[in-house]
Specification:
- The chain has 9 helices and 6 strands, in the order βααααααββββαβαα.
- The protein is an alpha+beta fold.
- A 6-stranded antiparallel sheet has the order 2-3-4-5-1-6, sandwiched between helices.
- It is elongated.
- The C terminus is likely disordered.
Length: 269
């Protein structure tokens, strides 16, 4: 019986700390960025409201943005300063000019926060992919990895068995091919456990015991009309990454915490 699964990801404290160290931020800083994004979304396009939001930012958040999105936060501060200047000479400025400048300032702040979150996401996804690669190698698979945009596809092979793993937006999809009996379920479980032992817990949110030794929907989509791709692990992995990258919604930032399940849209597998 062959199977495919979709799982969300939770990084443990050790792996999360490694990501934070790589980014030169504190472990809890990602939570500050996420909270600031949520606050900004509900902040009205009002100059006083924007100033209030920024004045309430902690030194830790300010430092994190300076580290992860220095250009974007500089542009945001300039936009807010321009809005303040226009607001002070309100009698000489049209209402439309003030509204437009405040909207620009809010958009620039949103871009700065989004860029910081993307940096965290990218580093977290890279750490996850590294854990999958190391796990496959530990279990005796020949591993090939390719990336397209924010999607990483990992081809793992052993004898007639093929495992395709796709990491994207806080989600991992796994699909098996080449096994016609219950061995697949055992191998799938072994891979889950090995990845988990490396600080990346997979929380299963979808399963398809497709019973097709040629693979499930994820593998079939990567092959498409080119069955020869299965003979080239690198080309096959790249095709899988491209197919998911260009057909799935752009992933939102996913939580970088050890306490809560990482959020992100599921791969359309």
């Amino acid at each position: 019986m062959s199977t495919s699964t979709t799982s969300t990801v939770r990084l443990n404290a050790t792996r999360s700390a490694q990501v934070a160290k790589q980014l030169r931020i504190a472990l809890e800083d990602s939570t500050l960025v996420r909270a600031a994004r949520a606050e900004l979304r509900v902040t009205p396009e009002d100059l006083a409201a924007l100033e209030s939001v920024m004045s309430g930012w902690s030194p830790a958040l300010t430092s994190t943005l300076a580290t992860l999105s220095p250009d974007e936060i500089a542009r945001a501060r300039s936009a807010v300063t321009r809005a303040v200047t226009i607001g002070k000479r309100q009698s000489h400025s049209s209402r439309a000019e003030i509204v437009n400048q405040v909207a620009e300032a809010k958009e620039q702040l949103a871009q700065a926060l989004s860029q910081a979150h993307r940096r965290i996401d990218t580093a977290s996804a890279e750490s996850t992919a590294q854990a999958v690669v190391a796990s496959g190698q530990q279990l005796g698979y020949r591993v090939t990895r390719r990336r397209e945009g924010c999607t990483t596809a990992i081809d793992m092979r052993r004898d007639h068995e093929i495992v395709l793993a796709v990491v994207r937006g806080g989600t991992i999809a796994l699909d098996h091919a080449g096994l016609a009996d219950a061995t697949c379920l055992r191998r799938h479980s072994e891979l889950f456990d090995e990845i988990g032992s490396r600080g990346v817990e997979l929380v299963e949110v979808g399963r398809d015991d497709h019973r097709d030794d040629s693979g499930g929907q994820l593998i079939r989509a990567a092959v498409g009309d080119h069955p020869e791709l299965l003979g080239d692990p690198g080309a096959f992995a790249l095709s899988a990454a491209r197919q998911i990258e260009h057909t799935s919604p752009q992933p939102e930032a996913w939580n970088y915490t050890t306490e809560a399940e990482l959020e992100g849209p599921r791969i359309q597998a």
